Amino acid sequence: MTSKITTSQTIGPFPHEAWRWAVDMTANVESSAPKIVVKGAIFDGDGVAINDAWVETWMPDSAPVETAHAIPGYRRVPSNDEGGFSLQITMPQAAITGKPVAYVTVFARGLTKHQFTAVFLEDDAGLAQSEILVQVPQQRRDTLIAKKQADGSYLWNINMQGAQETVFFDYI
Amino acid sequence: MNFDAVDSGVYPELIYPPYKSTVKRGPTQAPLRINAAAATTTNLFASPRLILPHDMDMTAQGQGEPLGEKIVVTGRVLDEDGKPVRNSLLEVWQCNSAGRYWHKRDQHDAPLDPNFTGFGKMLTDDDGRYRFVTIKPGPYPWGNHHKAWRPAHIHFSMFGNVYAQRLVTQMYFPSDPLFEYDPIFQSIPDAAARQRLISRFSLEETVDDKMLGYEFDIVLRGRNATPMGI
């Protein structure tokens, strides 16, 4: 059967004001559950920061502990002038083991189709048994793993191209 | 849901040199096809409370009527089985009738319209249908190359019923003379896939002497939705 799906087009340079409502609504998380912060930046093939990208996350495990949130388990964040973004993630009571803390969708001008990826934490004891990571070639898994920083936050960069090109997914 | 691989040429090329900014931003490696149950069975919940009174009438967001040609755009959001994608969040944004976006970085020398921001959002109904009233957007220059003008378009952002259905695209208008010169439109190799981004004029949806109607149906990826509606 030949599919008749609607194809993709870039978000272009001008979604900021139109997409702002969801940034504002999802920025502050009202939940007593513990939180972590994943910070990073997004870079093009020359290592130049992409200052007009957007990062969205879907966090199915966090959604149940964010019931007071406008859109539980969802964040939308524009990259800043340095390509940077910061994601506040609510951790559920049971540890997220072997699973991504966030499914991440990347959009940008010059990106003709959004890209799906996911972020895992390096101190997750279940990484070796991860049903997702086992499907990723070993030498590329590192691009999906956020590294713990001295201040307790996690660092995770997104590289659109290059030796450290982030693994992007197409879900089956 | 199940997501078949997309036929070659249906998606735009990720690196398409005539569209200059793709060269350093498009991933070079093919996406990795993986199983991830959460991505294909769960999604965010968009409450009807997120939709504000004039989100579906972009001509009613200012103090007065915006300038330009008032139109209504409607269609159904379906999955690959032809089933309606119900109660699903859909955002639209566009420039005004003069070709200017309400955006601090848009430097195009065309006037802003104080009565038109060009932002809308809505939920699809039980039949997968959406409908909004707006002003027909104008073409605008974008600096990619000499005489680079975008065909008139409305940006669509859809969240589907499961996370993996997420889609952002652009809807075009029939018979636009700029199609053949536009590298963003032409970055899609498959001619039929390009045609599916072009809305259809509809006399049926035209509202008396108020506004012309355009129809634009959207097919998101995914088959075998569960009977519970997701």
Describe the protein's architecture and organization:
The complex is a heterodimer of chains A (172) and B (230). Chain A has one helix and ten strands. Chain A is mostly beta strands and 172 residues long. Chain A has one domain (16-159): Aromatic compound dioxygenase (Protocatechuate 3,4-Dioxygenase, subunit A, Sandwich), CATH 2.60.130.10. The mean pLDDT of chain A is 95. In chain B, 6% of the residues lie in helices and 26% in strands. Chain B contains three helices and twelve strands, in the order E-H-E-E-E-E-E-E-E-E-H-H-E-E-E. In chain B, strands 2, 5, 10, 11 and 12 form a five-stranded mixed β-sheet that branches. Chain B has a four-stranded antiparallel β-sheet with strand order 4-3-8-9, with no helix packed on it. Chain B has a two-stranded antiparallel ribbon with strand order 6-7. In chain B, a hairpin with a 3-residue loop joins strand 10 (200-207) and strand 11. The longest helix of chain B is centred in the first third of the chain and has 5 residues, at 37-41. The radius of gyration of chain B is 18 Å and the shape is globular. The interface between A and B is large, with 63 and 76 residues.
Topology:
The complex is a heterodimer of chains A (172) and B (230).
Chain A: H1 16-27, E1 35-43, E2 53-58, E3 74-78, E4 84-90, E5 102-108, E6 115-121, E7 145-148, E8 154-155, E9 158-159, E10 169-171
Parallel strand pairs in A: 1-8, 1-9, 6-7
Antiparallel strand pairs in A: 1-4, 2-3, 2-5, 5-6, 7-8
Chain B: E1 32-34, H1 37-41, E2 70-78, E3 89-93, E4 119-123, E5 129-135, E6 140-141, E7 149-150, E8 153-158, E9 167-172, H2 183-186, H3 191-195, E10 200-207, E11 211-215, E12 218-219
The CATH H-level superfamily of chain A is Aromatic compound dioxygenase
| Coarse structural class of chain A | mainly beta
Integer average pLDDT of chain B: 96
Percent of residues in beta strands of chain B: 25-35%
* Low-confidence residue ranges of chain B: none
So how many helices of chain B?
A: 3
Overall outline of chain A: globular
CATH fold node name of chain B: Protocatechuate 3,4-Dioxygenase, subunit A
- Integer count of domains of chain B: 1
Major β-sheet profile of chain A: 9 strands, mixed
Give the number of domains of chain A: 1
Radius of gyration of chain A: 16 Å
